[in-house]
Amino acid sequence: MPAAPPSGPSPAVEAVARLAELPGLPEQVEAAREACTRLRWHNALRRRTAEAAAESRVRGAVASAGLEGATVPLDAVRDIVRGAATWTPQPDPVERVARGAVAATAETEHVEALVLRAPAQALARLHTVAAAGLVPDDALGRPRLPGEDCGELTDLGPAPAAVEVAGRLRGVAEVLLALPRLPVVVAAAVVHAELATVRPFVRGNAVVARALDRAVVHAGGLDPTGVAVTEAGHAAGGGAAYLGALAAYGRGDAAGVGLWVSHCCTAVHAAADEGVLVADAVLAGRLG
What we know:
Layout: H1 11-19, H2 25-40, H3 49-67, H4 74-81, H5 93-115, H6 119-130, H7 162-177, H8 184-198, H9 205-219, H10 230-235, H11 239-251, H12 254-284
């Protein structure tokens, strides 16, 4: 059942609102919004938005898998998504990770209606597809239990104990439920970083974080077309820059959190630019 919005702003919501006012960030937030607006009015998106959004999800899946160290050809993923090819019957570990990234990115199309009214349900669905085959079935779609650890994203330091996860996820839900009152790019940045640093699941946390980011940017209206390739935006500076910005957020100080939000504003701008390339290809009939 959807959670009811809090009667007053929660500390998590107030923190996001304050972040948007850090020096230099209002201008970056506006630049990201303008980039998405330019994408929105691309000629290809007058009639062929669904086609462009589908291609965006393909490119986003490839970028998300790449950030996990799983390199897969764009054409191969496109063929799998459209049903012209299948995964191998006995996947190796790299392919399992790639499968999760592709499945989670595809699932964003179906959870967008849940993100702003039932965030926990959206997270569960994203994790269920992202971690299928990577964790036991009884660990799919649920946060870690006491005694369960996460060995992912070790560059960010040890994952918080499972007992801390519920409170942090509650803050994520509060931010998403308050999204109409918050700058979308900042809210998306915070929920993305919270999932990556808290690591609520045994595996699949970063893939879920990037998928949720995409869904928030779309459902929140920053990119109403769904064509911006948010994952490619995060990957544009390379995996080291992405992890470095997340590590800065994990420090918890204003400078570190501000650096991460700045990274996300730049990533959304790059995502919109990649979306323009997608729309150009759709308009020219150049998709594989």
